[in-house]
Design brief:
Length: about 210
Amino acid sequence: MAESSFVYNGVEITWLKHAGFRIKGSRVVYIDPYDIPEELEKADVILVTHDHFDHMDVKSIRKLSKDDTVVVHPSGCIIEGFESCEVGVGTEAEVKGVKIKAVPAYNVDKPFHKENCVGYIVGIDGVKIYHAGDTDRIPEMKEIEVDIALLPVGGTYTMNLQEAIEAAKDIRAKYYIPMHFGAIPQTSADPEEFKRKVKGAVILKPLF
């Protein structure tokens, strides 16, 4: 039975749901938290990849925030009432000791994600994690070198399972975790097939 969390070099990565993750080391970082319950621990930093409802869920951001939480987001995201840090592709920042780089994320042959969308490379406690955001397989992935890559596999709005399997060959990572499938309509995928075809695949189950 798959677990919800994976620990690498002391950093815990928990798949919350859909594209939402908690990264916990010396700081608590959330990426794209969506439709979450109240009882999760508060965030030091929250990253938002773009402004769609299932990624920029202000209600969930509010639940996870404390007085000094910083929300990092690309332009086009209207997030009021929080300390924020706006980024664009290529922006590098350090927020509360967490290193953040915004990288390209976009659709090649779909209309959904063209502007104001990013992925992130997060550096925490010496571990580098790539959250691809909502994206197709794109040439820029060949420049990604990290410890762990979080890749959408559900199709329709992002790359599908087979495209993600090919993308994993482009990205230099030790481990690959599939995401963005099963939580909303038209995003289905078989994670076991991903595991069979991707060396270093780690299959997590959503926390809720």
